[in-house]
Amino acid sequence: MLRKSCFLGAAAGALLSSPAVSAWQKVSSPHFVIYADDSPDKLREFANRLERFDKAVRLVRGMADPALGDGNRLTVFVVPDIKDVQRLAGTDHGMTTNLAGFYRADGTGSIAVVPKRSGDSEKPWMDDQETFFHEYAHHLMYSDLTAPTPLWYSEGFAEFMSTASFAKDGSVTLGRAATGRAMEVTDSKTFSLDRMLSGKVEQLSEGEWSSLYSRGWLLTHYLTFDLARKGQIERYLKAIAKGTDGATAASAFGDLKALDRDLKTYVNRRRLSAVKVAAAALETGPIKVEQMSAGAEEMMEHRMRLKAGVTKGELPALAQSIRSIAARHPADAFAQTTLAAVEIQSGQFAAAEAAAERALAADARAIEAMIYKGQAIMERAGLGEKGKTFADARKWFQKANALDSEDPEPLMYFYQASVRESGRPNANAIAALHYASDLAPQDYGWRMQSAYQYLDSGKLAEARRALVPIAYAPHSREAGRRAQAAIGKIDSGDAKGAQGAMR
Fold it and tell me: Are residues 353 and 302 in the same domain?
């Protein structure tokens, strides 16, 4: 099944295919915020499972685990079934009908959408989350990128992690065989190994996509466990990071025909290896479950649509529905914050500021509302409205930052307000931009903006480091193309040319 990261808008019409729910819960854990309409005990178990998966992947990959602020955790929306996932993802606008869940990387708040019911699966919904684990593996990889990651390895790694299993003793096993890929892993005719390793995969058919996922998984699995090939993947990726084209970098694997034969032999083994991480190494942090307010429950479907993304044509009707609900819940922080968000998108900045103020009256520590209030003031200042200044906007971003210093969003808007006020940000604003990009490296747009600012400051080496992970961006070919062009200019000492290549 293709599982491409989705950046499409939600489809018009009703979202949920099941009757309205009456017990939406919000679950907060160190790395996740989960919204779902299930029992607190089940959702606490689900959050614990996600946290153990996160810990297991970090241990296996040797990844750091920095503290996350509330604004930098992954938000997971659990919807009734696959049809609801596809409506949110915008399948009716051309997305694959095989989509069973999706992940959207965004510095303002990355989200994942997963179904309770996946087609004809008879598994309990918490045991049927391969799509989520695939997409969350991407999230972790993007959060730890220091080098370009070719498409086959990005998807192969995600597939490797997606088959995670959870034992009753608390252990987690990673790297189990992806049985759904068995029919395609040896199909060298559909997608040859040398083409896959070259990274030249701009246009792929449905069959080629599927073959790339399968053979990417197999090669990742093989290189992970075969001792004779230890270090080859690292040499390959290191060569690409230095600017070597994929076909040349593939020399790290030796004779590719021999590698292809070895892969066919490997996949036919009676049993493939896996990594088991003991329960003792997977202690998780606190998990909090709280039932949402009546206003939040009524607003939830609309909040999900807004977060997943809507088209310009869909926005007016959605905004009107949100306004109606918010009017019934004037003292509900969640409802009013959602209203502020849609008013920002609708260009109704005075209404957005008023909604944010009502949210803050209900909850003085509502960071999202502070950010929307700052945005609204910033936009009104940009329009030249009397009494609205960029300095006032920055104060709200500073208030949000004081409550959560690891939330990248107020840092980015602080930078933007400074640029819009004077055209040239000061050192404090520039530092805020770079830190925001560091906190949300999965947002390629922010990373490009950080690189552009480094170039403007004459820091070519820092700009190159920011751009390198984007060079083979698996789900953003255009960003990858511009990053590669900019890196070429940087390597020739042409900072202005690099900035031009990034536009």
Answer: yes
